[in-house]
From TrEMBL:
Name listed for the protein in its UniProt record: L-lactate dehydrogenase (cytochrome)
Compartment list: Mitochondrion intermembrane space
Cofactor(s) needed by this chain: heme b; FMN
Residue ranges occupied by any FMN hydroxy acid dehydrogenase domain in the UniProt entry: 1-366
Keywords: Flavoprotein, FMN, Heme, Iron, Metal-binding, Mitochondrion, Oxidoreductase, Transit peptide, Transport
Homology family: In the C-terminal section; belongs to the FMN-dependent alpha-hydroxy acid dehydrogenase family.
Record bears the keyword Transit peptide: yes
Single GO term (MF): heme binding
Main localization, broad class: mitochondrion
EC number from the UniProt entry: 1.1.2.3
Full-sequence range covered: 104 to 472 of 498
């Protein structure tokens, strides 16, 4: 279909499935084990209902916000998804270019198929980019990478903490590893590549499973970028993160690709915010909470924000948007978010992001422990 025929973000997924080589589709779409968590990521949003307010003069609505102090035209950022070139020859640059044009923040993956510098070079002046970090067993490599990113102007360091070992994405594992554009590039720097277990395992063997809370002070000593822990799932760890002095957390289950039957980020948000309120008034300017997983609609975004998230990360929907249409597909995805945000904010009765409050949603079907 032509881009004009794309009406919502689900459409991009259907198109990607139809046009991608089987191996790329397997890598992008797969989740771990029985793929229960990936389904739950969508289902959890459907258990939350709106309680809209009326008669609030919603002639103008504004969904712009700040993320870690950086301006963002959407309350959504592009989360890190590895191996963009499996989907399109320009890979992650499709995201960078669209994001630069529309004031959206991109999180650059450690395992991007384009090099880090290519992605930074493709940004326009003032464009905000974050870095997703997989911590290498060789900390010198990590230190150089982080400090290089800071020097190149990256504004936030998202350390992935939910992947000491990669989940078993069985769809992906069934596709025997065959060298292909994008994969080769990422492999260059990594050793111990296993060639018979799917793309994900082949590229990730450098990740350090010994990473622990004791390493956090070291990260703080090597960079001035705000540090965010990506992949937190419990109030206990949210408080640990807060007490270790990091700038925030992403409540995430890695798009269902790590621990299967882990709860969804949106479901965990409520009890995490409750716990963080014991450390001071909420929202807390010193600590931001993000959510990702299963976001396909502006209504999902608004639910997360109403429940206390600062912004929401989107992985697959943006990735699928460039597979067939390149940069233009990503721009269309932003447009869809804008259209849906405008309509939903008017119908909810929120003129700004700050006007989204917990009483505007009924999350009683989400159990808290
Ligand atoms: C990811 N994600 C991810 N996260 C991360 O920290 N490092 C990575 O390299 C990747 N790579 C990656 C590849 C692919 C194909 C997917 C789908 C996801 C997880 C990503 O950042 C985010 O947490 C999820 O994608 C959010 O869920 P949705 O939006 O895909 O449902």
């Amino acid at each position: 279909p032509s881009l004009d025929e794309i009406v919502n973000l689900h459409d991009f997924e259907a198109v990607a499935k139809a046009i991608l080589p089987a191996k790329a589709w397997a890598y992008y779409s797969s989740a771990s084990d029985d793929e229960i968590t990936i389904r739950e990521n969508r289902a959890a949003y459907q258990r939350i209902w709106f309680r809209p307010r009326v008669l609030r003069d919603v002639s103008t609505v504004d969904w712009s916000t700040t993320i870690l102090g950086q301006k963002s035209s959407l309350p959504v950022y592009i989360s890190a998804t590895a191996l963009g070139k499996l989907g399109h020859p320009d890979g992650e640059l499709n995201l960078t270019r669209a994001a630069g044009k529309h004031g959206v923040i991109q999180m650059i993956p450690t395992l991007a198929s384009c090099s880090f510098d290519e992605i930074v070079d493709a940004a326009v002046p003032g464009q905000v980019q974050f870095l997703q970090l997989y911590v290498n067993r060789d900390r010198e490599i990590t230190k150089r990478y982080v400090q290089h990113a800071e020097k190149r102007g990256v504004k936030g360091l998202f350390i992935t903490v939910d992947a000491p070992q990669l989940g078993r994405r069985e769809k992906d594992m069934r596709m025997k590893f065959v060298d292909e554009s994008g994969v080769a590039k990422v492999q260059e720097n990594q050793d111990g590549v296993k060639k018979d277990e799917g793309v994900a395992r082949a590229i990730s063997s450098f990740i350090d499973p010994s990473l622990s809370w004791k390493d956090i002070p070291w990260f703080k000593s090597i960079t001035n970028m705000p540090i965010i822990l990506k992949g937190v799932a419990t109030p206990q760890d949210a408080l640990m993160a807060y007490d270790h002095g990091v700038a925030g957390i992403v409540l995430s289950n890695h798009g269902g690709r790590q621990l299967d039957t882990a709860r969804s980020g949106i479901e965990n948000l409520i009890e995490v915010v409750e716990a963080l309120k014991t450390r001071g008034p909420w929202p807390n300017p010193k600590f931001e909470v993000f959510v990702d997983g299963g976001v396909r609609r502006a209504s999902d975004v608004l639910k997360a924000i109403a429940l206390g998230a600062k912004a929401v990360g989107v992985g697959r929907a943006f990735m699928y948007s460039f597979c067939a249409y390149g940069q233009e597909g990503v721009e269309k995805a932003f447009q869809i978010f804008r259209d849906e945000l405008q309509m939903n904010m008017r119908l909810i009765g929120a003129r700004t992001i700050d006007e989204l409050t917990p009483d505007m949603v009924d999350a009683s079907a989400i159990h808290s422990h």
